[in-house]
Fold these 4 entries.
Entry 1:
Amino acid sequence: MRKFQGFAHRTTHFGAWAVVSAAVLFSLPGHAEAGGRSAPAAPAAAPACTGDSVITKKLPGGTTWRMCWRNSPTAGLVLTHVTYQPRHESKPIEVLGSARLAQINVPYDDGSDEYNDVTDERFGEGALPIKAADCPGGTVRSFRVADVGTVKGLCVTTQPRGFAYHGDSGDVGEGRARIDSAQGQDLVVYTLHAVGWYHYVTQWNFSDDGTITAKEGATGNLSGGDFNASDGTGWPVGQNGAAKALSHQHSVLWRLDFKPGGSWKSKVEQYDTTTNGTNAEMGHGQLKTSRKQMTKEFAGDNANDRWWRVVASASRNADGHPRSWEIVHNRSDKYTRHAYTRHDVYVSQYKACEQYASDNRRINPDCLGNVAKYVNGENLTRPVVWVNVGFHHIARDEDQTPMPVHWQGFQIVPRDATDMSPLTPDRLHRPEFNGHN
Ligand SMILES: [Cu+2]
């Protein structure tokens, strides 16, 4: 396994645009408004974070990720100023202003209980230490939790992710064709938080191809007081079925404050592909993809062949295409009783007090209460994306003990952030291999 590179050389990753003596992550005001590679050098900016609050990692494929992190007493792991700099980009490209959990809502099937783990159970205060062995190849960092003390609880590491690509350059017309292949790597950051008997893994993977994966893992133990589902709302675990573990729902909601290409101003689009008759000559089916500009706040639902993207307002790649990031949301058990867990995504116009997907008034009493209410028809100029991924947990014998981690999550995938693949070998990163006439 590849040895972790560590942070000893992090300042060198800042390259030409800043020379610094300590680890700092600069915010990038203004740099992207000019767009593209020809933008002037960024003006001197105040550091967004310094020292141990900076995560910066150059992956073997040449992609550098930078971000700031902290542990919130409610939301747990909060990432801010997330930037992506592939090998051929002279400057970091900002992607997310902030990204974190917005709620974990857990109602039980018999109606006996319901939890809001982030706001009511104060998820972030349940931070657990991470053993060195549980952060293989990486470094565990410390943070303070009020009334608890210092918790050594953030793992920063790298993990292999399998094939990055495999291709024959003869297909694109290279004179002396070669087979190119590479194995991909992720920068991986995660925390552990206990809520009752559950332990949650809050994990973010930042891939060398620009993909961001958010996933929440639930492990720990089935709730000790909930083995009495005699009314049919549970599943027998243990001998003879006397103990029936109560079924329940984990709706995990994330809040993504996009800052694509360095500007808060962005657009959201929905794409749908549908059947469109038959090719008269060949007799094969035809498809048609349509784009819908989402100019107002909305709650969206997955459908066959549907996807959304957040489009930078003032940042283009070297091909002149607007940079954008696609939300890849594949699966969800939606808890339909609540308006705030009934949909797969919610996109709201930014408001400072709209912080949690539900139970928001516990923390922000003068604000609206949940994400379904935030989405009330305003114009979208600074979108905040709330992603809901539900998991209806019907326990099984294998859930004892400890319970194997069950994961739920989504991805943010760059679409036209760079002119070609960020991992294209240098000898193929040339105009003649970028598009065909
Ligand atoms: Cu569960």
Entry 2:
Amino acid sequence: MLSNRRVIRPLRFLVLLVSLCFFYWVSGFPRTYDDDELPTSLRIPTPGVLEPEQIIVSVKTTTSDSWSELPPLVVLTDSAYHDSLLLMGDSRLTVGPFTVEDVLDRYTDSFVEDNPDMERYRRTLEFAHSSVDFAELKEKDRRKEKGVLATLDKYKMLRWVERTWLLRPERPWYVLTEPNVHLVRPNLLSWLGTFDPDGYHFFANPPAPDAAHTIVLSRGVMKAIMVDRPDLIPYYDNNIRGHKNAFEVLTTVLFSTLNITATMVWPEISDYSPATAPYGPGLWCDHVIAMSNMPTDLMNEMWHFERERWNRPNDDALCFADLWFRFMQPENLDPRDNWDNLSSGTGYEQWNILFDRKRQHHSDESAGRAKPGEGSWEACRDSCSENEFCVQWSYSSVPMPNDNENGETRCHLSRSMKFGQHVAPQQVDRSGEKATLTWKSGWEKERFQSWARQQRCKSPQN
Ligand SMILES: *[C@@H]1O[C@H](CO)[C@@H](O)[C@H](O)[C@H]1NC(C)=O
Ligand SMILES: CC(=O)N[C@H]1CO[C@H](CO)[C@@H](O)[C@@H]1O
């Protein structure tokens, strides 16, 4: 009997194993997932939160940048959003399963031939016909290249809107953006869910030099220009040249035909990346919807970060505070040599701390002002640590503008915390003399962290 059993047992075990495997295989079919295990985009909809296909994201690029910009963008965009992703360029290409549209192909041949602004487009088409490497289209001088692309962008603007609508008509929302913009989709879906898509809505980030625009248009606006006024876009062909930039072309058309202006959305939509956002009291619990100037490595970090958050389904909307804890807190923030100057820098003036130049000692009038720290980086660091509002400093080897009444200074103090970046020493011309400009930067991490820990962005039950 015993020996008999011994034979049967392994057999039974095998049968059990096979049926168990079968059970797991079947139950692994993705229909029976617990709701919490699913990525945000696939969960049962919360009322008011839109579904991915209700927002068309249309990304504009140019042929010579397509290969460097589009593959990372597509890989780092969750597949739940692929159906609603459109790629718009200036020659027809494919990037894997995606088609890049040539949005300029509706201009007439004579318009393209006779218009000097279309030079780059003409060359792009020639290169495409003769299989010349598109990288050779680019100007060597980066500023010149920017100028060429900005000119072409003016002609793309309305045609980009048009093509987006024609490919995906009648969707509640259209987001027009660029490859270096990262969209935090769950926040975008819940934010736009609070507006009526059939009203006239036109949102954008405040214009900033060198920053991409993220533009949001409602179905109401799109219908008014695409369906109610079918001749509008062709009519504008000959009115484009005089405009300063692409955004102005769009704002002019929407203002003159619909009497609407862009509603600026900031800081939810901004030109910051996690490395350049000025973290602090003015920018902490705000939700992050779109960031621009994103290098690919940070896009990749964001992809991982958002995945980690999926596994914590009770997390609230991603806000700037989350970015600080994820990207800055783990960093060693001891003083760094050859580190960028984000304590000065245009666009950050409102956080700069003014120096108390008149008095040696603080009085009521000079409250909040800092002791000058021109002498050395150590003096600058000490000036920061002695000022209760200061969370970071940078020290330049030659005086540099502070963009406020501080004038030119070596020491730059700030009330907001930015990460910045490595910056190599450079030769500069200071009133006729050559000098080497280097930057050193430091942070008051402990001070900032104790402030950060006292903040409560999330709903009280968490
Ligand atoms: C345009 O909009 C403004 C502000 O909404 C309004 O005051 C004005 O009357 C409008 N003009 C026309 C012509 O509709
Ligand atoms: C981000 C920033 O403000 N960078 C500035 C650093 O300083 C150089 C000049 O040395 C500026 O050109 C950058 O804009």
Entry 3:
Amino acid sequence: MKTYHYPPFLLFYLVISTFSALGPDASNSLYNHLQLVYLWPSTFCLDRNMVCKKPVAQNFVLHGLWPADRAGNSLVYCSRTGSISRALTKYERQLAACWPSLSRHTTNRQFWQYQWDKHGTCVLPRMNVLHYLQLMISRQGKFNLLRALTSNNIKPNGSSYPRCIIEAAIRQEIGTRNLHMSCLNFRTRLFIKEVYMHLDVSGHKVVSCPISNKTRGCGRSVNLVFSAAASRV
Ligand SMILES: *[C@@H]1O[C@H](CO)[C@@H](O)[C@H](O)[C@H]1NC(C)=O
Ligand SMILES: *[C@@H]1O[C@H](CO)[C@@H](O)[C@H](O)[C@H]1NC(C)=O
């Protein structure tokens, strides 16, 4: 029979980390799942407080990868790690394509560092910054939300579509039952802003989002607008 022995130092580490995980300081870093959040740039840039770089991308981009607790609340600012500039250099080109800063006032690197400080640090010590960035790049490449929607005749042309049809199209793409969306209220119409899918702790498996009664700006609306480029006049 084959048995597996932990090296003594690892055992020591496990004991220590179990104890420290029970302490008040480390409780923030125990996440239950990861939220992979996509953003529809045309809606994000409708917001009056937002000045976007031009041209505005006509595809979903990542907003972030956010560790969350069992109830679906994201954990924030779990520890201080300083600059992740060296890790960013390694993946800069890929990150610029899938996770750009849309705001004209924020460079990509400022945005990535901010996201890491706020959300990314909550994956420690399960993942390090390189794993975190790799995971985002590899996960987002697996799904094509825009294709999933357009192939169901849901086009980003400023028309509104039944929310259940939108969700069904996305579920078909990500292969799970429950997802979340957020919306922006612009001139009394509700626009699709974000799509949240949930990943397991390792980030390798899509899981159902926790059932939640938060409306995330979408109200109880049965129709949502899929905004076209430059809807803001
Ligand atoms: C947007 O596309 C849908 C699906 O093809 C179509 O039914 C709708 O009329 C279009 N809306 C506009 C404003 O062109
Ligand atoms: C939403 O759920 C929470 C806890 O699950 C509950 O306390 C709250 O009353 C609910 N809110 C609404 C509007 O149903």
Entry 4:
Amino acid sequence: MTLTNHTPAYVTNRGAAYCGDALALLAELPDESVNLVLTSPPFALQREKEYGNRSQADYVEWLAQFARLVQRKLKADGSFVVDLGGAYETGSPTRSLYNFRVAVHFCDQLGFHLAEDFYWHNPSKLPSPIEWVNKRKLRAKDSVNTVWWFGKTRWPKADVTKVLTEYSDRMKKLLEDPAGFYTPKKRPSGHDIGKAFAKDNGGAIPSNLLQIPNSESNGVYLRGCKTVMAKQHPARFPAKLPEFFIRFLTEPGDLVVDIFAGSNTTGSVAEREGRKWLAFEERRDYLAASVFRFFGEEADDEGFKSAHDAIMDGRQVDLRRVVYGEPKPTKPANGSHYPIKPSQSLLLLNEGGTTAGLKSNRPVASVNYRKPGRTPKRKSLLSP
Ligand SMILES: C[S@@+](CC[C@H](N)C(=O)[O-])C[C@H]1O[C@@H](n2cnc3c(N)ncnc32)[C@H](O)[C@@H]1O
């Protein structure tokens, strides 16, 4: 899907990234068209440092403007997932309640339903704030973000079997030898631990504490940034975070939107997971660098530069994978940029989650084959 009144900075087989104010871009989407809005807004304190000067006092109302629109655009069984880092009050070792106020306001005033509160523990987070933790040693380090999962209704679509985790060693032993492990009995709590407990369900139900170190290599993205001397996005979340919610709350073909996309981690995961996606980001430099996430490992400096320059110049980059048998476009639309090397048009992530990285127009296992000579129809991202 492309928004009627805006040109995307880049398009892929499954998604489009737009530069602009998320409020204006969200307004363009048809109502009840989105399955999942998953985002990490500028946090109250970060706004002071990085993106302007929004104080904690008016933060909730600022974010609520977006949330009202999100609510209209979500399908009835759609979800809104918001990752918010904790913060301290200015000048004192007391916690700000802004992230909790967001949850209360969204439910009490906007009519969202808190489906579940998640906590993202980032064990690799550096100790902060320095004053209270390192210097005065008055507080423990703050390494947990609140991640609110809101439903538009009380019954958002969800399937926890899609995000099972590895069994504990104890459970693995039980599954190997249920009889030898223990005799089924009643626990002091009254729960009946019967034989059914020894059934292998393919993995354990995850908890709402997500332990994900933010120490991913971000290989191609960082290499691209280095090549074009672009600043890396300062507040990226790890791919495992959107991956969890995309798998949990959507199905292949569903539409996922990140309204504060930054380096477009969400879009790149959605692409790999076979979901349609849209990304909105107000800073063109962040968006121009985010295109590298869709490049294969073999991407070269020339490819990085040409795509980055095109986006910075306001031209659209088309990264849709060449489909075998599909006639190649001969005349790019005005203002469009097509990657200059054949390999660059084949740089998307394939269905299995690894980069396609093809050197030629060889067929890709995951593409839809079309009969040679027939004009390809681009499917709307919003079509079922
Ligand atoms: C915390 S970052 C998101 C980082 C992202 N999750 C990632 O992994 O790269 C928030 C982003 O929201 C963007 N932003 C702030 N206000 C915006 C607005 N009104 N419309 C679109 N983007 C906005 C900022 O420029 C910033 O890049």
